[in-house]
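Posting for a labmate who doesn't have an account.
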Amino acid sequence: MDFSDIPEGHADGEEPLVFHYSRERRLEHAPQIVRDYYDGKLTAFRPGLFKALVATKANRFMLFALVLCFCVVLFNAFFGPKENAETYRGIPLVLKTFRFAESSAGEVFAVVEVGDAEKRYADSYGNGNEVVITAKFRFLDVDNQIVLDEAEKTAVYSGGKMSLGVKAQDFELSSLEALILLRNAGIDASVSLRSKISR
């Protein structure tokens, strides 16, 4: 059935509207760019990725802001504070953990390394002014639940290198927390360190 001759768009008893369309007549009054597009002379502009990023002033500003943010994140990742290292009153403290898989069950070793005192604090420790350092170790699983709460280790610090360590069986341990207490006549402080267990 042919529906092309059915009149539309008028009320009963009125004459139907007749629409005449001429593409050539419409294009006579169109701008030159539209005529070129319909004739196929106009090709779409396809800039490269970099050209698109610097095409306008706003695009250049956004690109600069993204590069700046990326640089800040990288700088913070390499030079920012770390969870496993801290310096308190010239005493450098670093928590290191690693897994040793020689035995069948595997063991995890945790060490708090206390380095040499910084130069400006070098004379502050020793000669009766030693610092008692106590480290309390807690081993955590992937859900940050305490799996092992190890006994604390204590040593006396007089300005030189030393370490406090503990080992535990590996029960799918993920990370380790160490609460380090520093005490002497002038210091009563605590430092919390955290480290992922490397495998």
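Reply:
Got it, the structure tokens are right above this. The chain is about 20% helix and 35% strand.
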